[in-house]
Every structure is written in structure tokens, then in C-alpha cells.
Amino acid sequence: MRDGADGGLGMDGLVKTGFLLVVLTAVFVVAGYAIAGKTGMIAALVMALGMNLFAYWNSGALLLRAYKARKVTRVNDPQLHGLVADLATRAGLPMPEVYVIDSPQPNAFATGRNPDNAAVAVTTGLVQALTREQLAGVIAHELAHVQNYDTLIMTMAASIAGAIAALADMGRVFRSSGPNEHGESDGPGLIGTLLLIFLAPLAAMLVQMAISRTREYEADRLGAGICGQPVWLADALDRIHLGVRQNVNHAAEARPATAHLFIINPLQSSRLSELFSTHPPTAERVRRLRAMSGGMAGGTIARLARSGGASGPVPVSRLRGVP
Fold it and tell me: Which of 142, 181, 216, 218 is catalytic?
């Protein structure tokens, strides 16, 4: 995937993400048709619109409330607040709200429908496990998600995928396979319905996984440009990966549909779930970042951020949140 030189999502990535969202919506509509024919298809379209509108306006607040996140201010945590403020300035973004989640597992996510209504949340485990340089890399990654409107896209993908799963559950109870009043079949029949009931959620999961993986690689690349030091984020990902395996995030385990929002999958995974993970392999992400660190001049790294954002590698001493 070639990305735009301005640091935004390149045309190839934009087209790919848009196509995957269309596919996800199509799976949802087809699932509705499988359950209740044309009526189900129309109902699915209406439901998708309603869910996405609700998610657009409320998903961020609901997510932070679900994780019992505490708001950070320059008074109660000046170092963390100052670090986010400086990095947001470098990225050319409005200052997002900052939250802390009480969890021993090191992790972080961003949420909000646009840069003017964004929030960045980090766990207490993350603040304790990382150096300030590594923490800067993580926050820069989350700000890259905000900059690229990933929080909105992934919220839409999650809401549609969740609706597909709900429709599949409904299909096990209600199925339209007989003729309508005109003597015509109003659905795909028994075999088609059963296939869609089981295959639609799998297809939705695979599409959501593809969207998430595309956005994570891009956020790593842009995050390196925002903080100016790819190695900070690479080292942070190594530490977070180890910390996730050693500490359970109970809130995330109870809400697996939100796992794709975190910088690293927070779920305690088996081999099978790793195969269908919404995140790229951590080792590959680290490899790409270290390659950037070793092969890119400061001016090249700077061009990864949007105009008006980062202007080159930043010395750690110049970030207010880093002692």
C-alpha cells in the first residue's frame, strides 16, 4: 500500500478501507434478506443507518463510561496532560480529552467522531510500564488514529459487524423460506439461510479484521512521524505485547467487540483467536518501525506528519511530559 506523502491515508488505503466498509454493509443487507426476504433487507438497511447514527454521536462517551475512565487535567496529572498537549500540537490537532483507565494491563485507545471531539485513554498499567519516551510513541500512535478519522471508521465497522451477529442470532429463530402471497420465494431457502446465518458473522469478522490491520500499520507510520522517533513506538509495542500476556484486562474481556480499538489486542488469546486477530502481528509492526528508524532522515520522518504538524525528530527534553 502506497500512502500519501502528506502523511494522510494514501489513495490506495482510502479506496481499500471504503471498499471493505461497503462489503461489510453488503453482508449485513444480505443477512437481512436471508432472514426475512426483501422486508428483512430493507429493515437491515434502516437498522444499519440508525446504529451508525447512534454510534457517531454517542460511541465515544459510552466507551469511556464502560471502561470507567477518569478524566485527566493539567491539575491532577500535569505530566501526562502536557505530553498529550505537545504531541497534539506537533500533529496539528486540537487538544483531545485525556483519560486514565484503572487496569494493570498496559494498553491505550483513542475514540471520538472527529478531531474536535476526540479522546485518548491510557491504562494505569501503561503509564507504569513504559518510559516517557515510549509513552510519547504510544500517544502519537493514538493521535494518528484521530488524525485519520480511524476512530469513526472503526466504530462504524464494529457497529455493523455487531448488527450482523445479532441478525444471525435472530435467523436461528426466524427464517423466511416459503413462498409469499404471490406464490414466489421471498428468501434464499433453507440451505441458503443456514449458510448465511453461519457465514455472515465470519465474513463480517474477516472484513473488520482487514480494516483494523490496515489502519494500525498506517497509525504506526504516522505516529512515528508525529513523535519523530519510530524507535520509541517500537520499544513500547514490545513492552505492551509482553504486558498484555501477563495481565488480564477484565473490562475488555467482557467487551470483546471493543478489542480492535486498543493499540494491541487486549484479549487473552488462543492460537485460533490470534489467527483471526484484528491487529497485525506485533513483531511485524516493530520490524517496520525499526526499519524506519534506521533508514529515514529527520526530514523524511517529518514529512509523515500533515502540514502544520510535526517538523522533524523531537528531542525528548522538549516534550513537557518527558523529564
Answer: 142
